[in-house]
Each structure stands twice: as C-alpha cells, then as structure tokens.
Amino acid sequence: MDDYSLLDLFWTMLWFFLWIMWLFLLFKVITDIFRSHDLSGWGKAGWLILTLVLPYLGVLVYVIVRGKSMSKRDIKEAQDRDAAFKAYVREAAGTSDAGGDAMKKGSHVDDLAKLAELRDRGAITDEEYQRAKTRLLV
C-alpha cells in the first residue's frame, strides 16, 4: 500500500468515473435503439449487435450517426409525458377542456363554497343562501 501514490489514486478514480460515464452512455444508446420507431427490426438488431460485440466503437458510431435523432426522440417523449400528466391532472381535478358535466360541477362547487363563505361571514342570510343554492343546483 506504500507504493500506491496519491497520483495513482487520482488516475484510478478518473478511469473509474470514465467507465461509469461510458456505461451510462451505453445504456442510453441501447434504450434509444429499442425506443426508435424509424428503425426496422433488422436495423435494431444490427445496431444492438454492433453495440454489444464492439461496444466502444458501436456506441461511438451510433452517437455520430443517430445522435441528432436521439435528442429529438428525447424531446418528443418528454412532451408526450408532459401532455399525459397534464391530461391526468385535468381529469383528476374535474376541469376537462371537453366541456361536459365535469366543468359545470367544478364551477358549481366553487360557487357553493363562495356562497357558504358569504353566509359564514354574515354577508348574506340563511334564506338568501338557500335561494342562491337552489338556483345553482337547478
């Protein structure tokens, strides 16, 4: 252990870091190969074989040849995920853009809450509250 200098430790850590970074890139490329809709099955198999048999060369060639389309697919997937999340939130909150009962129910609930708040503050009487509530629910 005495002959392992601080510089040797630095080089070991550097090579380990570079190896981990390369593994991340390899997994990213393999994921992109399977996610790509513009490649045929044979194309996917060819790229996969190239990246597994000659990993360093295969990953480097893949990034050079298809790097620009990789970023486009990443952006499209992120936009699709964002749109699906927003649709889920609208559906869960009951404020659908398609109109329908969900929008009406949401606005009625808000209006009833406002009426109840006015009644609780004493701005309207119980009788006025009941009349306004009846009008909203009909």
Explain how this protein is built.
This protein has helices at residues 6-35, 41-53, 55-93, 100-121, 126-137. Helix 1 (6-35) runs antiparallel to helix 2 (41-53) and helix 1 crosses helix 3 (55-93). It is 84% helix and 0% strand. It starts with 5 loop residues before the first helix and ends with a helix. The protein has 138 residues and is mainly α. The chain contains five helices and no strands. The protein is elongated.
Oligomer type:
single chain
Largest sheet: none
Q: Uncertain regions: pLDDT < 50 for 5+ in a row?
A: none
Roughly how much helix do the residues carry, as a percent range? Answer: over 70%
Question: Which of globular, elongated, flat, extended, rod-shaped describes the shape?
Answer: elongated
What structural class should be given to the helix and strand makeup?
mainly alpha
Question: How many E-type strands?
Answer: 0
H/E element sequence: HHHHH
Put simply, the count of helices is: 5
Primary descriptors:
single chain; 138 residues; mainly alpha; 5 helices; 84% helix; elongated
